[in-house]
Design goal:
alpha/beta, globular, single chain, binds zinc ion
Length: about 240
């Protein structure tokens, strides 16, 4: 760290308190009664609605319409994780927040997004260890930070959850436009264990931002299971409804 960095950070924090700017979602001026250091106003924060569906696929978390228990794609695929739960749908304001966080470097959204994970995790008993899905090293290098590592850090620091970065990723081409099968072959050999699970870590909750085909989460779950973890569940901020 550069000498004087602490003072600069302190000054920028003080300036942000004095001049908090405007809400990333609605553009209104942020006020002192909005959450400090949060770039979203309290009205917009409260208007973010988790998926309310009463019937969701028990594997991937997709809302079910006429299907029973499993959606049509989960009937065709075998995932290495036991289940995925997605808090929001990947659209509208949640999609915009993730864009601002990841592509506009709004790092102050990290603790805000971590709070959504924390609320979903607090409803679970016998939680186990939280493991972030590692980002593609090419994007991490370009961005200078890994989004899920920032969120997992806030979950440990602000909420006291046990977090460990057990997984690492080698560089690979972007996955965004690929199908499940293409993603699986794109991922082959790209993920690996960074370190073995700590003794007694039998349950893991994998954390990721967006659940799309489930290929990445499944590959991570496969590695963790091979390393001795007995049960892997997935918790994602948003599901990208196909
Ligand atoms: Zn707003
Ligand atoms: Zn499903």
């Amino acid at each position: 760290m550069l000498p004087g960095m602490g003072i600069r950070n302190w000054v920028s924090a003080a300036l942000e308190l004095l001049y908090p700017g405007s809400c990333l979602l609605c553009g209104r001026q942020l006020l002192f009664d909005d959450r400090p250091f949060c770039p979203v106003c309290s009205d917009c924060l409260h208007s973010l609605q988790p998926v309310q569906a009463t019937r969701r696929c028990r594997v991937c978390s997709l809302s079910l319409i006429s299907e029973e228990k499993l959606c049509t794609r989960c009937r065709r695929r075998l995932y290495a994780f036991a289940s995925n739960f997605s808090i929001f749908e990947y659209r509208g304001e949640m999609r915009e927040l993730l864009y601002q966080f990841k592509f506009r470097n709004r790092l102050r959204l990290g603790p805000v997004l971590a709070d959504f994970f924390a609320a979903a995790l607090k409803e679970r008993r016998d939680l186990g260890l939280l493991v972030p899905v590692p980002g593609n090293p090419v994007s991490v290098r370009a961005r200078g930070w890994d989004p899920m590592v920032v969120i997992a850090g806030a979950l440990a620091r602000n909420h006291g959850f046990p977090v460990s970065r057990l997984l690492a990723r080698r560089p690979g081409s972007a996955q965004k436009t690929l199908s499940y099968e293409e993603r699986r072959s794109n991922l082959a050999g790209k993920l690996k264990m960074r370190r073995p699970p700590p003794p007694g870590a039998t349950r893991v909750v994998l954390l990721d931002d967006v659940f799309t085909t489930g290929a990445t989460a499944s590959e991570c779950a496969h590695l963790l299971t091979e390393a001795g973890v007995q049960s892997v569940e997935v918790l994602t901020l948003a599901i990208d409804v196909p």
